[in-house]
TrEMBL record:
<dbReference type="GO" id="GO:1904680">
    <property type="term" value="F:peptide transmembrane transporter activity"/>
</dbReference>
<feature type="domain" description="Solute-binding protein family 5">
    <location>
        <begin position="181"/>
        <end position="499"/>
    </location>
</feature>
<dbReference type="InterPro" id="IPR023765">
    <property type="entry name" value="SBP_5_CS"/>
</dbReference>
<dbReference type="Pfam" id="PF00496">
    <property type="entry name" value="SBP_bac_5"/>
</dbReference>
<dbReference type="InterPro" id="IPR039424">
    <property type="entry name" value="SBP_5"/>
</dbReference>
<dbReference type="GO" id="GO:0015833">
    <property type="term" value="P:peptide transport"/>
</dbReference>
<protein>
    <submittedName>
        <fullName>Oligopeptide transport periplasmic protein</fullName>
    </submittedName>
</protein>
<dbReference type="InterPro" id="IPR000914">
    <property type="entry name" value="SBP_5_dom"/>
</dbReference>
Length: 595
């Protein structure tokens, strides 16, 4: 087996020194000398005036820099560094990479040095697959953006939902291949009255990570927590009871045959009733226990998991801002560069089970013009953008929320002539349309392309970049927003959830009358018999009707599905990433390169 060293005592970089160099380089660029006030040092180090003086004196005495204090209180001091920054970083990153010090490398990458100086090939090799000296099989990987909510009530990102399902378990599992539910924490379930009452029989002897055994009161606690914190998700529930220690019963105000599907989703992951929920350290019955790490977290295999211990021992995840721009089209868990033994990663192109779209803020005056909305749709021709921008990634134009449905339909046609006629009909004389977009190079390029195209036809558009963890709201000063949405394992439930969850854009920005119509259509989910032969066809028909209502008035314009190249290390056996590039860590194991 190919192994990487993971020493027990990695080197400790001088973090105050590195923090100061990073801040001064970001402010001044490459210089031999920098001006510095104690206030600057206090802010960058997050310390008191006295501590800042001590740190500067220490670094001066150690020969890391030459510090010349300013004369008098508040005067500017000078610092001069004795070594060239790029050379120092090259030596440091090589040393840390050779020691396998992933946590330190992740922390170093977050200081803001030029990416090429820190994220070298050697650094990338510290991540990936390996075996510790103690024989621990370990995957080290990275997340290249800040994590959002890790609370099941509010989780709205596929990556965070995936992490939660490694630590927490639901009552039931949805099998996307078969399109049916499977037992999990509940070994049997059913309804004695055609969908108004649901009874779940729990497995016995299921252990939580803190040692207690699961019982029906934990299910009752969890579902009551969902009713209070996310009432949209369990709407219609009138009572949750635990008539016996291993029987949970849910009563609805009307029959709902789709209800069990909702209990297989992230919002209904089961929590212990005796441990306050903490997003920094979630506790459940899942296959992995969560441990905090400097700059990330570790998932440790839970030997008492009722469905069997994971085959891998640990998964370490570090927060590394690898790209400030778009996430890379390659989803790579290979770690080190390919060797003649491994023959490189196995690659393939897959459409992500997601959709990008342009949505109007119905609460703004400009959105009231049907002709203006239609004109923007004609202007936004994703194929023209791809060609004019020289984009090399594969393109799948979207005609549906799901890529498999878009593949079966011809792309929508666009016409600048129609756009011009619609703009004349709209006679828009207001201020420039404000277009909200995430501050990512690819997303901004698309928004700026649309703004330039609109300007040529006389429609002023202003692009408003936003932080990566932001979402526009109804009261924001924006007319349109570029965004994307990702479906989960259960496509139809994800579609339902996306349109029902108040944290997501649809309920924030769409007109009230559109939402009323959509809600009425989605109510048809209740009458679809789960597991019956025509279930999938009935749900597909409902989705078609909902999409027609959403797209018909041009309040929403679907643009494209992202297509990613995924790379999987050949030592990873019998496990394949899903359409999001996620790997089920519970099934992950490392093979032998010689096999």
């Amino acid at each position: 087996m190919v192994v990487s060293p993971f020493p027990s005592a990695p080197p400790a970089p001088d973090w105050p020194y590195l923090t100061l160099r990073a801040a001064l380089h970001a402010r001044d660029g490459v210089r031999d000398r920098h001006s510095l006030t104690l206030t600057d040092a206090q802010v960058w180090w997050g310390c008191s005036d006295r501590t800042a003086k001590r740190q500067l004196s220490r670094l001066h005495a150690a020969g890391r820099l030459a510090y010349t204090p300013g004369r008098g209180r508040g005067h500017t001091s000078r610092v001069a560094f004795t070594g060239a920054l790029e050379e120092e970083l090259a030596a440091l990153t090589a040393h840390l990479a050779a020691a396998g010090a992933a946590a330190e490398l992740a922390r170093l990458s977050r200081l803001g040095f030029p990416r090429a100086w820190v994220l070298t090939d050697a650094v990338r090799g510290a991540f990936g697959l390996g075996v510790s000296p103690a024989g621990t099989d370990r995957l080290r990987t990275v997340v290249t953006r800040p994590l959002t909510s890790l609370d099941p009530l509010t989780v709205n990102s596929a990556a965070e939902a995936h992490l939660l399902t490694q630590v927490l378990d639901p009552l039931l599992l949805f099998d996307p291949q078969a399109g049916t539910l499977r037992p999990h924490l509940a070994h049997h379930w059913g309804t004695p009255d055609d969908g108004r009452t649901w009874v779940f029989h729990l497995r016995k002897g299921v252990s939580f990570h803190h040692g207690r055994t699961l019982d029906a009161q934990d299910v009752q606690f969890t579902l009551e927590r969902v009713r209070r914190g996310a009432p949209w998700y369990l709407g219609g529930v009138t009572a949750v009871q635990a008539p016996t220690p291993f029987t949970a019963q849910v009563t609805l105000d009307q029959p709902d045959l789709f209800f069990p599907r909702r209990l297989a989703h992230e919002q209904a992951l089961i929590l212990p009733r005796d441990v306050p929920f903490d997003e920094r350290r979630p506790v459940g019955t899942g296959a992995f226990r969560w441990h905090a790490l400097e700059g990330g977290f570790r998932l440790e295999a839970f030997g008492a998991h009722f469905a069997g211990r994971p085959l891998i021992d640990e998964v370490e995840v570090f927060l590394v801002p690898e790209l400030r721009g778009d996430a890379p089209p390659t989803l790579d868990v290979t770690g080190a560069a390919p060797t003649p033994i491994t023959q490189g990663p196995v690659e393939s192109w897959v459409p992500e089970n997601s959709v990008h779209f342009l949505i109007w803020n119905a609460h703004r005056p400009a959105a009231r013009s049907a002709a203006l909305r239609a004109a923007v749709v004609e202007l936004h021709d994703i194929r023209a953008f791809w060609q004019e921008a020289g984009r090399t990634e594969r393109l799948l134009p979207a005609t549906s929320f799901l890529p498999r449905r878009s593949l079966g339909r011809p792309p929508r046609g666009h016409s600048l002539a129609r756009a011009q006629a619609l703009l004349q009909e709209a006679a828009y004389a207001g201020p420039p349309l404000r277009v909200w977009v995430l501050d990512l190079p690819g997303a901004r390029q698309e928004a700026e392309w649309l703004a330039a195209r609109a300007a040529r036809l006389g429609l002023p558009v202003q692009v408003i970049p936003a932080p990566l963890d932001a979402l526009p709201d109804a009261g924001d000063d924006v007319d349109l927003a570029f965004m994307g949405e990702i479906a989960g394992w259960d496509e139809h439930l994800s579609f339902w959830s996306a349109l029902k969850q108040p944290e997501l854009l649809f309920r924030r920005l769409l007109p009230a009358e559109v939402l009323r119509d959509v809600d009425a259509l989605l109510d048809g989910y209740r009458t679809v018999p789960v597991g019956a032969a025509p279930e999938h066809a009935a749900l597909e028909a409902l989705m078609t009707r909902v999409e027609a209502r959403l797209l018909g008035g041009h309040h929403l314009h679907l643009t494209h599905h992202r297509v990613k190249r995924r790379a999987v290390h050949p030592l990873i056996r019998d496990v394949h990433p899903d359409a999001y590039g996620r790997i089920d860590f519970k099934r992950l194991w490392l093979g032998d390169a010689r096999a």
